[in-house]
Amino acid sequence: MNLPKQPLNQKIFKYSITSLIILASLWSAAGLEITLDRIIDAPKQIGILVGAMFPLDLSQEAFSRIIPKVFESLFIAWAGTVIGSFFSFPISFLAANNFTKGIVSKATKQILNIIRAFPELILAFIFLPITGLGPLTGTLAIGIHSIGTLGKLSSEVIEGIDEGPLEAIKSSGGSKINELTFGIIPQVMPTITSYWLYRFEINLRASAVLGVVGAGGVGQELINQLRFRDFPRAGTVLVCTIVLVLTADAVSAAIRNRIIKGKLVKS
Amino acid sequence: MINIPPKPKASYLAKIGLPFAFMFSIFSFNMIDFNFSDFQNNLQNRKIVTEPLFNPKWQWAWDNTSSALLETIQIAILASIIGCAIALPLSFYASRATNLNKFSYFLYKSFLNLVRTIPDLFWAMMFTVAVGIGPFAGVLALVMFSLAIMGKLLSETIDSIDPGPMEAAKATGASHNQTVFTSALPQVLPNFTAYFLYIFELCIRASVILGLVGAGGVGRIIETQRIFLRFDRISPIIVIILAVVILIEQFSVWIRKRIL
Amino acid sequence: MIKFENVNVTYPGGVVALKDINLEIKEGDFIIIVGLSGAGKSTLLRTINNLVKPSSGTVYLEGADVTNAKKKELKLIRSKIGMIFQTFNLVNRSTVLKNVLTGRLSNVSTIKSILGLWPKDEKKLAFEALNQVEILEKAYVRASNLSGGQQQRVGIARALSQKPKVMLADEPVASLDPITSRVVMSYLKKINTELGITTIVNLHFLDLAKEFGDRLIGLRDGKLVFDGNVNEVSDDDFENIYGRSIKSSDLIGDD
User: Fold this and answer.
1) Do B172 and C89 count as a contact with CB atoms less than 8 A apart?
2) How distant, in Å, are the alpha carbons of A35, A104, C53 from that of B247?
3) Chains meeting B at 3+ CB pairs closer than 8 A?
4) Is residue C217 in a domain?
5) What is the pLDDT of residues A67-98, one digit of tens each?
6) Residue A262's pLDDT band (boundaries 50, 70, 90)?
């Protein structure tokens, strides 16, 4: 029996990737001065913090401060997503290279890339001096960032459509607009709408965070409570945020599911 | 006379959902005081931002941010590696296809869901209180962040693997762990790698922000400068960050294409 | 060797897959099971290694109760039963060798198998198995790079590496062309005659069944409707099994 030999590249590849990963981690840890004793100490510290949060502050006063902020985050996220969806929709057609030819689509894509690259928080920063502290800033920041991400995702959906139905419409004498309404839109709407909903879920988390810089929402409450060392109340803020996000996620996921399964019309 | 079928009724989702969404939107815009005239008035203030914004102080930016930028990248590397490494086994426990114990599956899945609901900045805030200000808190926060995303993505991928090879391994008398290891894990490795690269990108972006709460990285510089309205320093910093982020993104996309 | 006693299988959801199966299979038999899709062939095969647990009744292997065996016993029993599948069930991204080695998993500790530290003896068994199906030279090739026929041979090698007493083949050639199908069937026949391994094959091609089979078992709607030598089968018997006259899709042809 002539035993075949294992090709060398397979082994080399595996070992070099593993060592690369280990080296990168060690280099980073060293650079950040994360020593072993800090790592070992961490669970204890975390335990102390979590312990300090219980029992949670369930007083009337706490809720009267926290709940409005929770809803504020919800409104910011929703309004921001609406702005993002509304404006990204036409822009995505401009960016799709099968709908708009040539340089216009390329330029639009680049603009979208640039908008996307700005994290919501940075955008909030920039708007703060203009629109002041408050939910409006948060909404604008989230809205504009969403235009960027949704624009890119939607344009990719449009680029991925099946051209067949369009050809059928054209051959039966339909105009470009007919192609759009009866050919493109029905194909892309389920996916694009589900992207809108998914974006809402992400924006909800972003809006919770924006409060940290004063752009409205729950984040402000959390950072205040942590600064004042009022841990029970901080714990309540966390729990409220979790409940909000879980509920919104569940509803959004359920709706997304039904859209993708095409049950918008009952027969 | 032909029998025309009755027109299907739109489902509850369409009948109730869409008008509700519309009303809710108007309500939301109201609640955030979306007042157009106010907005126009405030636009005057933009000069405070735009004048220094377009007058970037590059030298200052270069001098002061390179070490912070390095810190940002190191946080992202460490956090994404550790977070994804922990998420790998966790995901198998959080998938019906590889975890046959209903109770344990429910526990792991709920854990992952819970971790996902807390925004990364919240994690950072809590960790800075627990282990002190600085990049260590940032790493811990992003480990949770990476864990959550990889956990969700990977467990969903595992849910849809081909069960055939697992059946074959089981038929030879292998233990459950052996079955998962030899026949489920190899199927999802390419996805794992792609997700890892994606999460690494996300960590770089997130790590930039973390400094705002003192968790290390460029964020703290931006925060300090913002307080003094030094947008002339912030703008070059942002441009540099963006350049780095876009570079890393292109690199990651390139690698992902080569692997898959 | 294998005994079915009043075996019934009903799937959750109410589908009755097997009704009152009583059957005895002797050591060294080469059995071909025919019947329509959904007649219960796959289920029958899977009750032998308890991948499907009967709702009532018992399956015995060499006197041991397979149906009610405890975990450890079951693993031991399964290690003596080799199984090959219609869709090959290979791990596509792994090498041929790794796939064959999964046949040895029951014999190697979990840690060793995870770290890839296969003892030399185990690897030797794997290589020998590959040699028996004549694709030793493909040992380090990725499984997905092989043709269908080659992949099924790897499947057979995986089963052979277990040094099994029983070989179960669930529609092993349904995805293969006529020529490759005959190659695979002849390997199975060869293994049966040379190594004495009790072999049970599900097929839906009647001419292949006649070509390679000794004993033929016919299933219809979960019931045993024919059990006899393949030479004794008449067209009427086939109609009894299939509930209709023979169609061209029931024959693999010669190509």
Assistant:
1) no
2) 30, 23, 56
3) A, C
4) no
5) 888 888 898 899 899 999 999 999 998 888 88
6) low
**C137 vs A contacts (CB less than 8 Å):** 2, 4
Token pair in block for residue A253: 């996921």
CB atoms within 10 A of CB B22: 11
CB-based contact B172 C83, cutoff 8 Å: yes
- How far apart (Å, rounded) are the C-alpha atoms in residues C220 and C230? 17
3-state secondary structure of C36: coil
Q: What pLDDT score was predicted for residue A165?
A: 84
In a domain, C142, yes or no: yes
Is C156 within the bounds of a domain?
Answer: yes
Contact C102, B185 (CB under 8 A): no
The verdict on B187 touching C (C-beta cutoff 8 Å) is yes
C103-160 tens-digit pLDDT: 999 888 888 888 888 898 899 999 999 999 999 999 999 999 999 999 999 999 999 9
* pLDDT, tens digit, 9 for 90 and up, residues B123-151: 998 898 888 888 889 999 999 999 999 99
User: Average pLDDT over chain B, rounded to whole?
Assistant: 83
Q: Is B189 on the interface with C (CB under 8 A)?
A: yes
Residue with the bigger pLDDT between C168 and A8: it is: C168
Find chains touching chain A: ≥3 CB pairs under 8 Å. B, C
Residue B41 vs residue A19, higher pLDDT: A19
pTM given for the model: 0.83
Residue A267 is predicted with a pLDDT of: 38
The CATH code of the domain that includes B141 is: 1.10.3720.10
Among B172, B181, B189, B192, pick the best mutation site for testing chain C contact (most C Cβ within 10 A).
B172
Closest residue, chain A, to B127 (C-alpha): A46
Closest CA to A3 of C137, B63, C104, C134: C137
Residue whose tokens read 């019309």? A265
Q: Which domain holds residue C94?
A: 88-163
pLDDT of amino acid C253? 73
Residue C38: inside a domain, yes or no?
Answer: no
B99 vs B248, higher pLDDT: B99
Nearest CA to C203 out of C163, C240, C166, C230 is that of C230
B171 closest CB neighbour out of C51, C87, C110: C51
Rounded Cα–Cα distance for residues A243 and A204 (Å): 12
Distance CA A157, CA A150 (A): 10
Domains in chain B, number: 1
Is the Cβ–Cβ distance between C226 and C242 less than 8 Å?
A: no
The type of residue at C47 is T
Give a yes or no: residue B62 inside a domain. Answer: no
Q: Which of C100, C101, C127, C142 to mutate to test the interface with A (most CBs of A within 10 A)?
A: C127
Q: Which of residues 11-30 of A touch B (CB under 8 A)?
A: 21, 24-25, 27-29
The answer on pLDDT for B212 being more than 80 is: no
Count of structural domains, chain C: 1
Domains of chain A by start residue, with CATH: 53-260 (1.10.3720.10)
DSSP secondary structure letter of residue A265: B
The arithmetic mean of pLDDT across residues C204-226, rounded, is: 86
Tell whether B115 is covered by a domain: yes
The Cα C179–Cα C114 span in angstroms is 38
Residue B149 included in any domain = yes
Comparing CB atoms, the residue among A78, A129, A205 nearest residue B48 is A129
Q: Which residues contact B32 (CB under 8 A, 6 or more apart)?
A: A72, A75, A76, A79, A134, A135, A136, A138, A139, A216
C-alpha Rg value of chain B to the nearest Å: 25
Point out the residue among A4, A6, A10 whose CB comes nearest to the CB of C137.
Answer: A4
Please give the average per-residue pLDDT across A147-158, as a whole number.
Answer: 91
* Separation in Å, CA of A187 to nearest CA in chain B: 18
Sheet containing strand C166-170, strands side by side: C81-84, C166-170, C198-202, C30-34, C215-220, C223-229
